[in-house]
Amino acid sequence: MASETLKTGLLTGLLLVIAGFEMFFLLFPDKGLADSPWRAFYYMPVILAAYWFGLKAGLGLSILTTPVYLLPTIRFFWAGQGFTWGNLPESLVLNLAVWGVGRLRNQLWLLSGQMESNRDLAAVGRAASSIAHDMKTPLMAIGGFVSQVSRTLEPESNEFRKLSIALRQTSRLESLVKDILAYARPMELHKREEDLNQLVLDCLELIEELAGRKQVELKLKQSMGIPPVMLDRSRIQQALINLLSNAVEAAPPGGYVQVSSIHRGNEVRVEVADNGEGIMPDKKEEIFLPFVTAKDQGTGLGLSIARKIVEAHQGRLYVRDALEGGAVFVLLLPLGAKRRRKMFGACNDN
Prior knowledge:
Elements: H1 2-27, H2 43-53, H3 55-69, H4 71-78, H5 88-150, H6 158-184, E1 192-194, H7 196-213, E2 217-222, E3 229-231, H8 233-250, E4 256-264, E5 267-274, H9 302-312, E6 316-321, E7 327-334, H10 337-349
Parallel strand pairs: 2-4
Antiparallel strand pairs: 1-3, 4-5, 5-7, 6-7
Organism: Dethiosulfatarculus sandiegensis
InterPro entries: HATPase_C_sf (IPR036890), HATPase_dom (IPR003594), His_kinase_dom (IPR005467), HisK_dim/P_dom (IPR003661), HisK_dim/P_sf (IPR036097), Sensor_HK_Regulatory (IPR050736), Sig_transdc_His_kin-like_C (IPR004358)
Transmembrane segments: 6-28, 40-64
């Protein structure tokens, strides 16, 4: 606060000094009004205002001082000597400079705020990871003991029902801890060339039971001739399973989920489309943030982990609207440099 007061006082003092000398040359034109050197010093407080206080302050001060800066033009016009450009071009240049400096200052403030927010999130993430790590072993022990006790009870008993609820909630907490640790830890990949079409088929088999329970039809559309892709099979499978399960949950009973694999240029893509309600435009990036979910039982980390996996492969994961309603999640993976060289070599041989 004291710093801002000092800056405001300095700007006010500069303006008063410069305006005082300007008025002196106005009152005594024989001293050289047309060649007043002080008018050029208006640049200093105006640009400083933009740098210290942002775009609005800089432009506001520039607009207020422009009439004084244009005193020669105004005086000659008022005296009936006709219109002259005078200092008008310089004034326009000054306002453009102020706009540029003020805009840069505003962007710097925005980036600084984002960096501060990221630091806070990183600290929270480290704390959550530490807590999750400490919770992992006790939860596994609790789940194991509850499971052992439940096996000694009659399935129809009230005690068995209560222990079943406790076991489900323990499993849910274990899943949450697992997701937090997966999101917080550095992503380690073990890549090798894989058949992407076969990987998609394997993922569909794993999701068939959920789709059957939800009465959702699974459709498959694969391009033939997709080259092997360098990837970590278990990681990409994890990402695809997450996208497929979300699509099945989003599709209505009697609806469908369509999976397409496509090869275009230097990349391959897998698209997972559903005919559900879709995603609001302002939510399309928010859903990839950690702990953001519309599900009652979700952890909100599934899509965050999926994007982290894809980006670790130098790929992209995003969502767009489906033509017939619903959402399409697009997973893009680049072909490895070795594979691209082989393809281009084959093209050149032809």
